[in-house]
Amino acid sequence: MANIVKEFVDSAAAIGKGLTITWKNMVAPTVTENYPAEAVHFEDRYRGTHILRRDENGLEKCVACFLCAAACPANCIYIEAADNTGEHRISASERYAKVYNIDYNRCIFCGYCVEACPCDAITHGQGFEIAAYDTNTLVWRKEQLLEPAMAKPESQGAPPRIPPGQKPDIPTTTIVG
Ligand code: SF4
Ligand code: SF4
Fold it and tell me: H or E segment at 144?
């Protein structure tokens, strides 16, 4: 008899616990996104399409070290490096990425490239609307990935940051892009 009573009490408690959760969710506000009518709200850690960053002088942070490409498990980053010159300075270092492509047909948004970059040159943005009928358009070029040049007038024509070990007499900066 004692067993039957205990079983009855346990069952009633379990049903009560389950119904409490159900009722709680029935009265809680519905959390959803009203996309595309409203903008999507992202968490800071969301990994969207990539952004190639610029430094405080408007120069590209990428120094074409290829570490991101080496770290990419999907092998979807393609880089061609070129040397900076006095007349044509793109980054503050010796080299810059003349070509920087990410193939979003293959990218799995793992973030390894971002972690591997020693210059914080590549980060994830919050872009996600990249669906396409033509897969060729999913190979994004540097021009699509690059952060726009700074708009502040005082930053235009600012001298380049002098890399460690380099003499300060760097020729005049030309910002392209
Ligand atoms: S997020 Fe991952 S898969 Fe995509 S480019 Fe970076 S390393 Fe490669
Ligand atoms: S994005 Fe970063 S890791 Fe990749 S080539 Fe440029 S500097 Fe190197």
Answer: helix 142-145
Residue 125 CB-density burial (10 A; 0-12 exposed, 13-18 middle, 19+ buried)? middle
Report which protein residue has its CA nearest ligand 1's atom 4. Answer: 107
What distance in angstroms lies between residue 141's CA and the mean position of ligand 2's atoms? Answer: 15
Ligand nearest to the CA of 117: 2
Two tokens at 29? 């506000």
Identity of the amino acid at 105: N
DSSP letters spanning 52-71: E-B-TTS-B------HHHHH
CA pair distance 167, 95, nearest whole angstrom: 16
Q: Give residue 148 CA to ligand 1 midpoint distance, Å.
A: 22
Selection from 102, 143, 139, 96 nearest residue 124 by Cα: 102
Judge whether residue 159 has pLDDT over 50.
no
Q: Look at ligand 1, atom 8, and give the residue with the nearest C-alpha.
A: 72
Q: pLDDT tens, 56-115?
A: 999 999 999 999 999 999 999 999 999 999 999 999 999 999 999 999 999 999 999 999
The pTM score is: 0.72
